[in-house]
Amino acid sequence: MATTGETQPAKHQEVGHKSLLQSDALYQYILETSVYPREPESMKELREVTAKHPWNLMTTSADEGQFLNLLLKLINAKNTMEIGVYTGYSLLSTALALPEDGKILALDINRENYEIGLPIIEKAGVAHKIDFREGPALPLLDQMVEDAKFHGSFDFIFVDADKDNYLNYHKRLIDLVKIGGVIGYDNTLWNGSLVAPADAPLRKYVRYYRDFVLELNKALAADPRVEICQLPVGDGITLCRRIS
Ligand SMILES: C[S@@+](CC[C@H](N)C(=O)[O-])C[C@H]1O[C@@H](n2cnc3c(N)ncnc32)[C@H](O)[C@@H]1O
């Protein structure tokens, strides 16, 4: 789940879960039956530490973390990138999925939050796979696009940051992911707001980013360079497999 640091819409605060499922009980069933019992101890610890942080609604949900972990194993990912780290829940789920010599280039404008999770990542023995860079992602992606050695070099890229830049990211990431590799864009169902009536009482940030997410979804659906699948996991994740 990726949002800004602001509070979620009231409905989501009331239901207290991070899913687009309409049934709290069903979501709880998924967590308790299939997710929490299989969640690695380190991810549980990081989830609990993050829950105490004031911006905790930004964190990736446990079911999405489990999904990412399995997906990375299914595609045998080794070299990956993550844009939007926060305290590192999706980063840790990625690091645990990669082989010992796997790599994650992790980008975020905020190192302080990354450092909340770092001791847990270190204790889990996977910190050596992570190359964290503090700063806005776009200029770094521009540098990488300039350098042919990065072209087609990533097996998987997870984007969970500033929604108003997703299309800018896509323009660059399409060169950086390998053919057959996958880019995952998070929050592509944007709190369910994409189909809300024009006069619906949406939070300011939800309304602001909604148009960017709508535009992204349209652009991805029309992009012949990728095969796509939009999954209602967490706040919606769109997987794009590069085919040309
Ligand atoms: C929703 S959080 C990421 C959640 C994270 N994936 C997790 O599992 O907890 C979004 C993150 O994007 C970062 N961010 C926002 N704008 C950014 C930018 N231009 N470049 C890099 N990171 C950015 C924020 O600092 C924040 O930590």
From TrEMBL:
SUPFAM superfamilies: S-adenosyl-L-methionine-dependent methyltransferases
Pathway membership: Aromatic compound metabolism; phenylpropanoid biosynthesis
InterPro entries cross-referenced by the UniProt entry: Cation-dep_OMT, SAM-dependent_MTases_sf, SAM_O-MeTrfase
Domain of life (superkingdom): Eukaryota
Keywords of the record: Lignin biosynthesis, Metal-binding, Methyltransferase, S-adenosyl-L-methionine, Transferase
Entry keyword Kinase: no
GO biological process: circadian rhythm; lignin biosynthetic process; methylation
GO MF annotation terms: caffeoyl-CoA O-methyltransferase activity; metal ion binding; S-adenosylmethionine-dependent methyltransferase activity
Pfam families xrefs: Methyltransf_3
Family under the similarity heading: Belongs to the class I-like SAM-binding methyltransferase superfamily. Cation-dependent O-methyltransferase family.
Name listed for the protein in its UniProt record: Caffeoyl-CoA O-methyltransferase
